[in-house]
Amino acid sequence: MELYFCDSLKVPDEQFKYYESLLPKERLNVLDGSRRDMLRRSAVCAEGMVRSALSETISIPPQKIEFYRGQHGKPYIAENIHFNISHSENYAVAAVSENEIGVDVEKIRQPKMRTAEKFCTEREKALVTDAISFFRLWTLKEAYLKCIGDGIYGGLKSVEFSALEGEIISSAPDFRFEFAERDSGCVIALCEKIKG
């Protein structure tokens, strides 16, 4: 598994223009019509990073890689390689693996603790003590749902975590979870399906 990360506000303009050149015009039009400047920038960076990484892996020019969408919107390609992207505010991540994968990044900010009430199981509520633990739990759940292709549609309570430090313990036995430390301003979680 490979992880790519950037703070889109620190990406040089030349690199950003290159990432933009990799995306189809239709995709750029969607981003132009629905994103604030910073969110558009992080989305372009995430998609540009994943196209560059996939190109190296499958030896197809990044502009020629065709993305398809699953039932709940998870992107995939025809070649037998898996990937996922995420962005939050100025942060962007992309992950590429031989196995099904999900990744989530969240900028650390003060969460509304009543939100935790909606997505935490009773056991998980004890784990959420501050902003970092809130976003560690949130990113783990979202990475899992993205890995299985359900996104938020799968329900944030469909997987339960009982440890967020050291070895991550979950109710999903066929998946491996980890945090990636790239910047102190965000939390990044990865979920990878274990081949059995």
Structural description of this entry:
A hairpin with a 5-residue loop joins strand 2 (68-69) and strand 3. This protein is an alpha+beta fold and 196 residues long. The chain has helices spanning 13-22, 25-34, 37-58, 113-119, 122-125, 131-147, and strands at 2-7, 68-69, 75-76, 82-88, 91-97, 101-107, 161-163, 169-170, 175-180, 186-193. The chain is built from 6 helices and 10 strands. The mean pLDDT is 92. Helix 1 crosses helix 3 and helix 2 (25-34) runs antiparallel to helix 3 (37-58).
Question: What distinguishing features does this structure have?
Answer:
196 residues, alpha+beta, three-stranded antiparallel sheet, 36% helix, globular
Our count of helices gives 6
Order of helices and strands: EHHHEEEEEHHHEEEE
Number of strands: 10
Per the principal axes of the C-alpha atoms, what is the gross shape?
globular
Low-confidence stretches: none
Strand content: 25-35%
The value of Rg in angstroms is 17 Å
* Amino-to-carboxy terminus distance: 17 Å
- Which structural class fits the helix and strand makeup? alpha+beta
Sheet with the most strands: spatial strand order:
1-5-4
Helical content band: 25-40%
Average of per-residue pLDDT values? 92
Largest sheet: 3 strands, antiparallel
